[in-house]
Design brief:
Layout lengths: L8 H33 L2 H8 L4 H4 L7 H16 L2 E12 L5 E15 L7 E10 L15 E2 L1 H6 L2 E4 L7 E21 L2 H5 L12 E6 L8 E4 L7 H4 L3 E5 L11
Antiparallel strand pairs: 1-2, 2-6, 3-4, 3-6, 3-9, 5-6, 6-7, 7-8
Length: about 260
């Protein structure tokens, strides 16, 4: 338009600025979205390798790390590689209510625990489990929470041990159903690192207390909700439940290993 003498130079500059402003804002937004998406693509292991004491980013500083700091980072690496993986099976139930009607509630019907890199010769797992079964009758306008029950023995009696499918990794899988679906549960696992056991030293994933979780039927219908507790978070129900030490001589014997 300026070359055709339709508008003068100051007006051309003003129109250019007005038209390029929204374009610049759009480019800025797209750049921010790209950076966010790129950062979310990094796995926890990639983030660890980028910031640990062996990373290129810290190697040039030639820092002298204390042995305690090196041990802490090594334990973090073991947890990333060998932390047990959990899966829940959620079941929708119709529960009779006090007003001669029914309510629909979701419950945890089954629990699966994957132990990466485990085999019957070196697998050691300490398991503590308690939970609250769904009520037999739903009481409206009152609490239906119930009393947490020690479920470790009952769940282990009905569980089975198999190999993790080859396309999902290597190790052992312990899975079992509950006699009655649970409205909530707490779980603590003390999984002894299989690699460290081969060296004759015991190392528990997650530290001396292991890793504790709260489990619930909320969230996606088929997946449920699995929340890992921090070390300082209280777990009073687990402290009063029985801990079972499992190894390859009893529970951790996959069916197809015979």
């Amino acid at each position: 338009m300026r070359l055709a003498n339709i508008i003068n130079t100051p007006m051309a500059i003003r129109h250019f600025r007005l038209s390029m402003g929204p374009v610049n804002l759009l480019l800025l937004g797209l750049g921010g979205l790209y950076i966010y998406a790129w950062s979310r693509q990094a796995t926890p292991l990639q983030n660890y390798l980028a910031g640990c004491c062996w990373s290129h980013g810290r190697a040039y500083k030639r820092e002298q790390l204390a042995p305690e700091a090196q041990l802490t980072e090594f334990e973090q690496l073991l947890a990333l590689l060998y932390k047990p993986r959990l899966a829940l099976q959620i079941q929708s139930m119709r529960i009779p209510a006090t007003l001669d009607d029914t309510v629909i509630r979701n419950g945890i019907a089954a629990l699966t625990i994957d132990l990466p890199a485990a085999d019957p010769d070196n697998a050691i797992l300490e398991l503590t489990l308690n939970g609250t079964p769904t009520p037999l009758r739903f009481r409206k306008f009152s609490s239906n929470e119930g009393t947490p029950t020690d479920l470790g023995a009952a769940w282990l009696d009905g569980s089975e041990c198999t190999w993790i499918p080859a396309d999902e990794g290597q190790g052992l899988r312990l899975s079992g159903a509950f006699i009655r679906p649970l409205s909530g549960a707490s779980l603590r696992l003390r999984y002894h690192s299989p690699v460290i056991l081969l060296a004759g030293v015991e190392n528990v994933i997650g530290g001396d207390r292991g890793v504790a979780y709260t489990l619930g039927p909320d969230g996606l219908l088929t997946e449920g909700e699995i929340i890992e507790l921090r070390r300082e978070d209280p777990a009073p129900g687990l402290n009063s439940a029985t801990t079972y030490r499992l190894d390859g001589t009893q529970y951790l014997q996959p069916k197809d290993s015979v």
